[in-house]
Amino acid sequence: MANRGNFSGRIGFILAAAGSAVGLGNIWRFPYLAGTNGGAGFLLIYLVCIFTLCFPVMVGEIAIGRKVGSDAYGSYQKLGGGKWGYLGLFGILAGLFILSFYNVVAGWAFGYFLEISFGDLLDQQDFGAFFGNYVNDIGPLFLFSLAFMLITAYIVSQGIAKGIEAANKIMMPALYLILIGLIVYSLTLPNAMAGVKFYLIPDVGEITSRTIFYALCQAFFSLSLGMGALITYGSYVTKDQNIVSSAAVISIADTSVAFLAGLMVFPLVFSLGAEPGQGPKLIFVILTQAFQNMGPIVGRIVGGSFFLLICFAALTSTISLLEVPAAYLVDQKKFPRKAVVWSLAVGIFVLGLPSLFSQGIVPALNKLPVHNSPDFLSFVSDMCDISLTVGGCLMCFFIRYRWKMNNLNEELTLGNPSFMGSFIQKYINFTISWVCPIVLSILSVLVIIDKFFGL
Ligand code: TRP
After folding, report:
1. pLDDT of residue 448
2. What's residue 167's pLDDT?
């Protein structure tokens, strides 16, 4: 497999996988979902999901990828034979759709970066109304999301080590720093503590079935699980690396960014007297208001850098989303990497156009004729959520019944000689054999019923 390229080492892999995980999911989606689903209760369920369901699935995905050294389809196909390859294809398909809408939201963030840094966005009176108009200003957004897709394609076309790793090394630490700076700022504002309470002190009575569904789906989305992204990245990992500890570092890195994003947003929300449950526009409204309050010059610099860093976080995620289908076409169909990457980028961009037009400018795309009549973008994102938990669940069935637990354990022992017999081995075996398949299949069915018919 020498010619497929490898990550340059443990740090390279961890940075790339963490870069995939940390993205709009952490900074844009996590706070608004927490805001609409009870704050601290959501956070609590989210953490439980990460620990009991997502971490084992992540270990499983990386192990499958490294064992075979192939793309998502090839890995399931070679290990499982029969029709198992379809499980990989299912994930690849989900990835195309995720990237299609993700890229649109990345275009919004890129637009905000430009408008804050060089335009007059911070002079607005009503940031909610501004956002509503902004996402329907299709001309510039078309260009921004196209630019975003082309930059992604350029990096992916450069191959694994050069493109993907290099992009992560500077941006991740910078993102942490600015988050922490903004948390310190927001905690000093009047009434900030009401936000901290909303976010950190759970009211168990407020936890509904929907809190659980959204937290579960968000946890899978945030860790990039369930569609073969980490199988693909795992295929570039060398046999001397410790998969379990790498997965732990990746999960902690991702979860801490989501946690910090919430800790930044909710004190701001409460000190501005705003509504935590305002949905996808939450950070676009709240943060711009906060940047405005910082004064014209500071606001421009801090706000501009913040949205720029969000764009970089999104970029390392779009890279991983594009890498999955690209690896499939390169490995299985033997197409040349560059041609594959550029054609995919154009195709997925076109697939994303209905999402781009779904925020009001085309009414038919804004209220779909399904049970809760969401816009097209939310609808695609809901469907992708479902496919991630289903994909993760099927992966556990695959390991348990087809690949077998002892083969997983053998793979996990490489690079981690003391794995056999350890507590963590028992934990992973137990969760993959019992907890994940049972809990994920029940919850996936309930999520499907809820999204289509409402529970
Ligand atoms: N995890 C990323 C985020 O939180 C999004 C993402 C990248 C993703 N690759 C993925 C989600 C693969 C699901 C599957 O922003």
Report:
1. 94
2. 67
20 lines ligand 1 (CB under 6 A): yes
Distance of CA 314 from the midpoint of ligand 1 (Å):
9
**Dihedral of CA 161/61/322/24: which sign?**
negative
Handedness of CA 50, 263, 102, 325 (dihedral sign): negative
- Decide: 195 in ligand 1 pocket, CB within 6 A: no
Q: Give me the pLDDT at residue 162, please.
A: 66
Indicate whether residue 227 lines ligand 1 (CB < 6 A): yes
CA of 32 to the centre of ligand 1 (A): 16
What residues contact residue 181 under an 8 Å CB cut-off, 6+ apart? 302
* Residue in 312, 348, 352, 324 with CA at minimum distance from that of residue 23: 312
| pLDDT per position as a tens digit, 139-186 | 999 999 999 999 999 988 987 666 566 667 777 888 899 999 999 999
Spans in the chain with pLDDT lower than 50:
1-2
DSSP 281-296: GHHHHHHHHHHHHT-H
- List CB contacts of 439: < 8 A, sequence separation 6 or more: 52, 53
- Distance, CA of 365 to CA of 343 (rounded, Å): 26
Contact 55, 67 (CB under 8 A): no
Q: Measure the CA–CA gap between 69 and 223, rounded to whole angstroms.
A: 21
Q: Where are the domains of the chain?
A: 10-453
Residue in the block written with tokens 């939450």:
282
Q: Give the pLDDT confidence score for residue 245 in this predicted structure.
A: 97
For ligand 1, is residue 242 a contact (CB within 6 Å)? no
Kindly give the distance from the C-alpha atom of residue 84 to the centroid of ligand 1, in angstroms, as a whole number. Answer: 23
Cα-Cα end-to-end distance for the chain: 48
Gap between the Cα atoms of 8 and 153, Å rounded = 21
Residue 242: what pLDDT? Answer: 98
Which tokens is 311 given?
Answer: 């764009």
- The radius of gyration of the chain's CA atoms, rounded to the nearest angstrom, is 21
Q: What is the pLDDT of residue 370?
A: 85
Query: So what's the pLDDT on residue 6?
Result: 77
Quick check: CB of 168 below 6 Å from ligand 1? no
Integer Cα distance of 349 and 85 in angstroms: 26
**Of the options 2.40.30.170, 1.10.4160.10, 1.20.1250.20, 3.20.20.70, the CATH number for the domain spanning 10-453:** 1.10.4160.10
Residues with Cβ within 8 Å of residue 295, at least 6 apart in sequence: none
Q: Does residue 317's CB lie within 6 angstroms of at least one atom of ligand 1?
A: yes
